[in-house]
Design brief:
- The structure is a single chain.
- The protein is of the alpha/beta class.
- It is 53% helix and 13% strand.
- Strand 5, helix 10 and strand 6 form a beta-alpha-beta unit.
- 47% of the residues are buried.
- Bound molecules: guanosine-5'-diphosphate.
- The site of guanosine-5'-diphosphate has 19 residues, from helix 6.
- Its EC number is 3.6.5.4.
């Protein structure tokens, strides 16, 4: 399960302080040392850890806690608050255009879960907002990519726009948007190509698709299992494309949690959704406060 190690360690640490009728500076120091190690072991970015520890320590040593009748519980609440803040505070909704169609461009490395998430998002938008989504196949390099998107589309009964693999992605996008307007699709999801590593050709192509589609949302899809790498990838994509939201996939796996806890702080971009299974209904809006509660038990 995700966050298992982190959760166990933080809960053990909090347990020690929970019932305390008096919390000393030394108690806070010991606790913060344990919190720091737990976060580092969960692969949270070291700068993020440093800042987190400083903020929590400062608040925990404040007079609110020291004069409280239940200081142990106050300290735990501070940790929970700050974990929530670290992940963005509250849920950030997907951007919607006032004038249809809303355009979402999915970007990310190969294998991160773009195609799967494109399908999941289409299904979610139809179910929750009554949208008429159109999926657009812009990954013209990976031989089975178009077919994979078509399989996904068939599974959830959502049409896929494709011009095969001989037309350039920006041209596919242009025609797809025209098709969407003519046929009154109000939610267009563009599945772009990924690579195993970021390269210039890929980024240039994505910039072209961005220019043509003027997306309301550039959704970066990252694999939570890749920890700090996910954060580095997010920074690179963000620098080039100015992403507007992040979907963290494979949170149903046994990720240590580093990506979930670092991405927001490092990139300042919100995690909007999390992938919780391989199935088409396995996409959920991300709620930082719920995730923090889950971690602290
Ligand atoms: P793409 O190359 O970025 O388009 O990635 P795909 O959509 O093909 O996904 C790569 C693999 O990850 C596939 O086997 C998906 O089923 C799997 N996958 C994607 N999202 C999730 C998720 O949230 N949970 C799990 N367990 N698997 C996922």
């Amino acid at each position: 399960m995700a966050f298992e190690g982190l959760s166990e360690r933080l809960q053990a640490t909090m347990q020690k302080i929970r019932g305390k009728g008096k919390v000393t500076e030394a108690d806070i120091k010991v606790m913060m040392r344990e919190v720091r190690l737990a976060l580092l072991e969960a692969d949270v970015n070291f700068k993020v850890v440093k800042q987190f520890v400083a903020t929590v320590s400062e608040r925990a040593l404040g007079s609110d806690v020291m004069t409280s009748l239940t200081p142990g519980q106050q300290v735990i609440k501070i940790v929970q608050d700050e974990l929530t803040q670290l992940m963005g505070g509250e849920n950030t909704a997907i951007n919607m255009s006032k004038k249809p169609p809303t355009v979402v461009m999915m970007v990310g490395l190969q294998g991160a879960g773009k195609t799967t998430t494109a399908g999941k998002l289409a299904l979610l938008m139809r179910k929750k907002f009554n949208k008429r989504p159109l999926l657009v196949a812009c990954d013209i390099y990976r031989p089975a990519a178009i077919q994979q998107l078509q399989t996904v589309g068939k599974q959830i009964d959502i049409p896929v726009f494709t011009l095969g693999d001989q037309v350039k992605p920006d041209e596919i996008t242009r025609q797809a948007l025209q098709h969407a307007r003519e046929e009154h699709y109000d939610f267009v999801i563009i599945d772009t190509a990924g690579r195993l590593h970021i390269d210039e050709a890929l980024m240039n192509e994505l910039v072209d698709v961005k220019e043509v589609s003027k997306p309301d949302e550039i959704m970066l899809v990252v694999d939570a299992m890749t920890g700090q790498d996910a954060v580095n990838v997010a920074e690179s994509f963000d620098t080039q494309l100015d992403v507007t939201g992040v979907t963290l996939t494979k949170l149903d796996g046994d990720t240590r949690g580093g990506a979930a806890l670092s991405i927001r702080s490092v990139t300042q971009k919100p995690i909007k959704f999390v992938g919780m299974s391989e199935k088409m209904d396995g996409l959920e809006p991300f709620h930082p406060e719920r995730m923090a509660s889950r971690i602290l038990g």
